[in-house]
Each structure stands twice: as C-alpha cells, then as structure tokens.
Amino acid sequence: MKFNIKVNQQHHSIETDSDMPVLWVLRDLLKMTGTKFGCGKGLCGACTVLFNGQAVRSCSLPISTVGSSEIVTIEKVDKIAEYQKHAIPIKQAWRDFNVPQCGYCQSGQIMSAVAFVKNTPNVNKQQIKSSMTGNICRCGTYPRIEKALAYVIDSKDANDAN
C-alpha cells in the first residue's frame, strides 16, 4: 500500500504493508536511524518518537494509523519551532550531566523528556520519575536523567518567573 506521511515537517510517500511499524518505516525506508529498536513490544522506550506531540513507541505503531498526523524524531526535534524551547535545554542538560553511558536508549529518553516538559503544565520535580518510568536504561543512568530534567525544570521555572 502507498502511504503519505509527515516526518520532521517533511512529507514522504512510501510503499509498504499497512501493519509495518513506524519504527521500521523510519529506520529502513527513510534511513532515519536515531530512533532505536529495543524490545519490539513498546515496553522499553528506545523507539520513542513524538506523534502529534505525544511520546509514543514507534515499534508498536502501525503505519496505517498515522494518517495526516505528524511524527517528530530525535534527528529534528531541536530544529522544529514547536519543540525547540524544550529540546535544546534538555539535550544540553543531557551533556552537562553526562547522562548517556552507552547511549542506546537516549534518543527515546530525550523524546519522552521533551513530551513530558512540553505537555505538563506547572511541571514539578516529583513528577519526573513517574513520567520517565516507561523508558528503560540498561546502564542505569536514572539518577543522572532525573538531575538533568530537574535542572531543566528549575531553569524553565526561573525563565517563566522573569
């Protein structure tokens, strides 16, 4: 079947089976390899992308369900105006707090963090742990993830107060 999808603000026309997961469309057909394969069941979060602004597991999202919705991947999340003010500070905090160890899960972690900060009004540090529980880190960098996100939230609060 033929599908017209919008990924990172660009339109793509692809031919594939209707049940092909978005993860494989991104990686195999569009050659966007920032989104990772982890478990294939939507449990680990390595494949997280933004789908209409929400963090979703692309390994369990069939291409047939995308329609006219927009998908945003790690490759462009910091270049798209709607997400820039969240993605840029999050990516910088990830570097500043040395969050990645092996780095495999980090694109999914960052995409979940962007959705969390963007979509949660009056976000607070107590919500961080519960918001990120769907993303598994094999290296156990959870304390660094929490510190980095807390720093972003504190910075956001300081900027909002000014």
Layout of helices and strands:
Blueprint: E1 2-7, E2 10-15, H1 22-29, E3 48-51, E4 54-57, E5 70-72, H2 81-96, H3 106-119, H4 126-131, H5 142-161
Helix pairs in contact: 2-3, 2-5
- List the uncertain runs: none
Biggest beta-sheet profile: 5 strands, mixed
Question: How many strand elements?
Answer: 5
Mean pLDDT: 93
Question: Strands of the biggest beta sheet: in what spatial order?
Answer: 2-1-5-3-4
**First-to-last CA distance:** 52 Å
- SSE topology string: EEHEEEHHHH
Count, helices: 5
Strand content: 5-15%
Shape: globular
Fraction in helix = 25-40%
Report the structural category: alpha+beta
Over all CA atoms, what is the radius of gyration? Answer: 16 Å
Protein name: (2Fe-2S)-binding protein
InterPro entries: 2Fe-2S-bd, 2Fe-2S-bd_dom_sf, 2Fe-2S_ferredoxin-like_sf, 2Fe-2S_ferredoxin-type, 2Fe2S_fd_BS, Beta-grasp_dom_sf, Diverse_Oxidoreductases
Domain 2Fe-2S ferredoxin-type: 1-77
Keywords: 2Fe-2S, Iron, Iron-sulfur, Metal-binding, Oxidoreductase, Ubiquinone
What does this structure look like?
This protein is of the alpha+beta class and 162 residues long. Helices cover 40% and strands 14% of the residues. It contains 5 helices and 5 strands. It has a 5-stranded mixed beta sheet, with helices on both faces. The chain is globular, with a radius of gyration of 16 Å. The N and C termini lie far apart (52 Å). The relative contact order is 0.15. The mean pLDDT is 93.
